[in-house]
Amino acid sequence: MSIIVNLDVMLARRKISSKELAEAVGITAQNLSILKTGKAKAIRFSTLSAICRTLDCTPGDILEFQKDDAEPD
C-alpha cells in the first residue's frame, strides 16, 4: 500500500510555484519539498486544508492510494 503525492501535478495545473504555495500555506519550502517528494510520514489536516484552499482542489486531487501488486485483495 502506497500513498502517492500528486502535488507537482496540481502545482503545474494551477501554474503556481512551490515557493508561492509554501508562502500561501504558511509552511517552509523544505517541508513542502518533503511533501512533494513523498518523503513525508504525515500531514496535518490543517496543512492539507490550506493546500486545497490555495489550489482550489480536494485532498483526492493531491493524495492517491496505490495498492501494491503483492497485496492480497
UniProtKB/TrEMBL annotation:
SUPFAM superfamilies, alphabetized: lambda repressor-like DNA-binding domains
Gene Ontology MF: a single term: DNA binding
PANTHER family: DNA-BINDING PROTEIN, DNA-BINDING PROTEIN-RELATED
The species this protein was found in: Desulfolutivibrio sulfodismutans
Classification via InterPro entries: Cro/C1-type_HTH, Lambda_DNA-bd_dom_sf
Listed Pfam families: HTH_26
Protein name as annotated: Helix-turn-helix transcriptional regulator
Superkingdom as given in the UniProt entry: Bacteria
Ranges where the HTH cro/C1-type domain occurs: 13-62
Listed SMART domains: HTH_XRE
